[in-house]
Design goal:
Elements: H1 10-13, H2 17-48, H3 58-68, H4 71-77, E1 79-82, H5 88-94, E2 98-101, H6 113-128, E3 137-140, H7 158-164, H8 167-183, E4 188-189, H9 213-219, H10 222-227, E5 250-254, E6 268-269, H11 273-280, H12 282-289, E7 294-297, E8 301-302, E9 305-306, H13 311-321, E10 327-329, H14 346-356, E11 361-362, H15 367-379, H16 385-401, H17 421-434, E12 436-440, E13 457-461, H18 468-472, H19 493-500, E14 506-510, H20 515-519, E15 526-531, H21 551-559, E16 564-569, E17 585-588, H22 597-603, H23 648-660, H24 665-680
Parallel strand pairs: 1-2, 1-11, 2-3, 3-4, 5-7, 6-8, 7-10, 13-14, 13-15, 15-16, 16-17
Antiparallel strand pairs: 8-9, 12-17
Helix pairs in contact: 3-16, 5-6, 7-17, 8-17, 9-12, 14-15, 17-22, 19-22, 23-24
The chain binds beta-D-glucopyranose (2 copies).
InterPro entries: Cellulose_Degrad_GH3, GH, Glyco_hydro_3_C, Glyco_hydro_3_C_sf, Glyco_hydro_3_N, Glyco_hydro_3_N_sf
GO molecular function: beta-glucosidase activity
Pfam family, one: Glyco_hydro_3
Length: about 675
């Protein structure tokens, strides 16, 4: 029982001792009833909180929650911080709305899916313990599979996917990526990149599906895979995320990132409005129609105006004309870079960016400074409260739509989705479809591909033949990518060759053999794998577009001595014209990712080549920029070029059916037998 000190003197009330006892019990009962009633009232209120009720429409929940929030809580929702500065206390005390992993920002080296879920759930518990318990969203660049994560399936980079020209494949890759991302407790990916790269000197050209805006539009189908397919009656333009196996997608970088002068990263895109809308904008419209939930702003400028401060394009056009109802996120330190010396007038940058219409800010480190600056700007009526409310309402809409309030924590039961065999098989198929066959035989009647699996002795050479990191490119494990075979799991091209050829075939690997060695070993043929070393963003800007040394001398030493197929691993067309005549065959493999078997599937004819160039292949860098439709168009290989081969199986089937259509069947059998012999025992 409560031991209450009664605040008056019993004697003065004229009570005897039993009366006193009764009164004391009476008061105690009243107090307990009051406390009970108070507790009950809180509980009932909590249950009646409209924003916590999943049966309420999203707009009702948003309005209800917004009405309960303080300015600090609202601004907190607009903040995204990197995981390296996040912990449960920061999440709770600053009401942080979102956390991210920048490139290579991982909980621990070689972290398992469980380790990711542990970390993210810990941050989330901090958010849930805040006054209103608003869950945070965790974002990451899963731009070719869940590429920051050890043991994830790494798909080809976008340039390779553009070569497949297969939207259905893109949708399936999106769905697989969403599952791998969710396997680590993450609900948001900064993908797809919708850049229309108009100059391969740009270090991000491999993040672009194509120089052709139409092709980029078709590839937005990946959004449906990532976020799920909105139901038939769903209103176009409203963000959609179909539950706990799907993730928020992000169309980036709005807009004109791929059109900068000389392909210099984060530079100025000089083009009239008609050109901007015709080349760089169309894919955003497709994305919005498909329900994309977020759009990231580009570091670049349009005709001298920083996109992060461009109210006309972000608020008036994207949110107004295109009716985008999701949230707009800044790029990493994008506000800092509004001033030409980054961070030199941060308060101004905050004002310019928020006024332009940015809703969530990838700060990502100095969050207290951002919060203080924005608070001050609102208190002094520089940034109006309804701008803040618009930003927060958009963020909350997405959080409610995706069911985050109902399922805020990572789900350990999905951990085995990471790097699953089904996803690796899909990636292998994607690699196969992404390969573009540029040359096959010194003349048409003497094709080198498909290669024989039964040759007695073959040579594999080159800087990229046995290097998983090179094969994956930038944005893999580390921001700038890695070199070697240990940082994640996958199959190198060398390993793929070894497991494809007949056990009787001797496979000799030398990274950089001299020509005497090549000549004197009786090789049936050589596979030369060369290309670019990994890079990301500005690190990849190049004025020369040359292959990694000693690529050119490897090609010379090998191709002048034995029949050779050259496989180029690169994020874009690179200088190739001077070497091409010495090669028997040439394959552009882009940045295929972890599944090297996709390359051998086509080299050895288990599947045909079908990829088509998603970009113009230039003769010399002096021609750049050069895109299809240009008046001075004079490419080595034009956009859309790509030789095809049937699979060995198809070729045999075709010759057999040709036979049954009129040729006596014994002749058909002979034709088929010859076809098999020519293809399998090529030399
Ligand atoms: C890139 C974005 C990326 C972000 C987060 C920026 O540097 O431009 O594409 O999403 O970092 O890693
Ligand atoms: C981060 C990237 C980010 C880049 C921007 C790097 O340190 O890891 O995610 O895109 O900085 O400059």
């Amino acid at each position: 029982m409560l031991n209450l000190k009664l605040p008056w003197k019993w004697k003065e009330c004229g009570l005897n001792s039993s009366g006193k006892k009764m009164a004391k019990i009476f008061v105690q009962v009243v107090v307990i009833l009051c406390l009970g009633w108070w507790w009950w009232a809180i509980m009932v209120d909590a249950e009646n909180l409209k924003y916590k009720d999943p049966k309420q429409p999203v707009s009702v929940r948003v309005k209800d929650l917004l009405g309960r929030m303080t300015l600090e809580e609202k601004i907190g929702q607009m903040v995204q911080i990197d995981r390296s500065v996040a912990n449960a206390t920061v999440m709770k005390n600053y009401f942080i709305g979102s956390v991210l992993s920048g490139g290579g920002s991982v909980p621990l080296p070689d972290a398992r899916a469980q380790d990711w879920v542990d970390m993210i759930n810990d941050f989330q518990k901090g958010s849930l313990s805040s006054r209103l318990g608003i869950p945070m969203i965790y974002g990451i660049d899963a731009v070719h599979g869940h590429n920051n994560v050890y043991n994830a399936t790494v798909f080809p980079h976008n340039v390779g996917l553009g070569a497949t020209r297969n939207p259905d494949l893109l949708r399936r890759i999106g769905a697989a990526t969403a599952l791998e991302v969710r396997a680590t407790g993450i609900s948001y990916t900064f993908a797809p990149c919708l850049a229309v790269c108009r100059d391969p000197r740009w270090g991000r050209c491999y993040e672009s599906y194509s120089e052709d805006p139409k092709l980029v539009q078709n590839m937005t189908e990946i959004i449906i895979g990532l976020q799920g397919e909105p139901p038939a009656n769903y209103r176009k333009g409203i963000p959609y995320v179909g539950g706990t196996k799907k993730v928020i997608a992000c169309a980036k970088h709005f807009v004109g990132d791929g059109g900068t002068t000389h392909g210099i990263n984060e530079n100025n895109t000089v083009i009239d409005r008609h050109g901007l809308l015709g080349i760089h904008m169309p894919a955003y419209l497709d994305s919005i129609i498909k329900g994309v939930s977020s759009v990231m702003v580009s570091y670049s400028s349009w005709n001298g105006v920083k996109m992060h401060a461009n109210r006309d394009l972000i608020t008036r056009f994207l949110k107004g004309t295109l009716k985008f109802k999701g949230f707009v996120i800044s790029d990493w330190e994008g506000l800092d870079r509004i001033t030409s010396t980054p961070h030199s007038n941060y308060t101004y940058s905050v004002q310019a960016a928020i006024s332009a219409g940015i809703d969530m800010v990838m700060v990502p480190y100095k969050y207290a400074e951002f919060i203080d600056d924005l608070k001050l700007l609102v208190k002094n009526n520089v940034v109006p409260m309804d701008r803040i409310d618009d930003a927060v309402a958009r963020i909350l809409s997405v959080k409610f739509t995706m069911g985050l309030f109902e399922s805020p924590l990572g789900d350990y039961s999905l951990v085995n989705e990471l790097g699953s065999q089904a996803h690796r098989d899909l990636a292998r198929d994607a690699v196969r479809q992404s390969l573009v066959l540029l040359k096959n035989g010194k003349n048409d009647s003497d094709p080198l591909l498909p290669l024989s699996k039964k040759a007695p002795k073959i040579l594999v050479v080159g800087t990229h033949a046995d290097n998983l990191g090179y094969q994956c490119g930038g944005w893999t494990i580390a921001w700038q990518g890695f070199s070697g075979n240990n940082a994640t799991r996958g199959t190198t091209i060398l390993a793929a060759i070894k497991s494809t050829v007949d056990p009787s075939t001797e496979v000799v690997f030398r990274e950089d053999p001299d020509s005497d060695f090549v000549k004197s070993n009786g090789f049936s043929y050589a596979i030369v794998v060369i290309g670019e070393a990994p890079y990301a963003e500005t690190g990849g800007d190049s004025t020369t577009l040359t292959m990694l040394d000693p690529g050119p001398s490897i090609i010379k030493n090998v191709c002048e001595s034995v029949k050779c197929v050259v496989v180029v691993i690169s994020g874009r067309p690179i200088v190739m014209e001077p070497y091409i005549s010495s090669m028997d065959a040439l394959v552009a493999a882009w940045l295929p990712g972890t599944e090297g078997l996709g390359v051998t599937d086509a080299l050895y004819g288990d599947h045909g080549f079908s990829g088509k160039l998603p970009r113009t292949w230039f003769k010399s860098v002096d021609q750049l920029p050069m895109n299809f439709g240009d008046r001075h168009y004079d490419p080595l290989f034009p956009l859309g070029f790509g030789l095809t081969t049937g699979s060995v199986k198809d070729i045999v089937a075709r010759s057999t059916s040709a036979g049954t259509r009129g040729t006596p069947s014994f002749i058909a059998m002979i034709v088929a037998t010859i076809a098999v012999c020519v293809l399998q025992v090529h030399f």
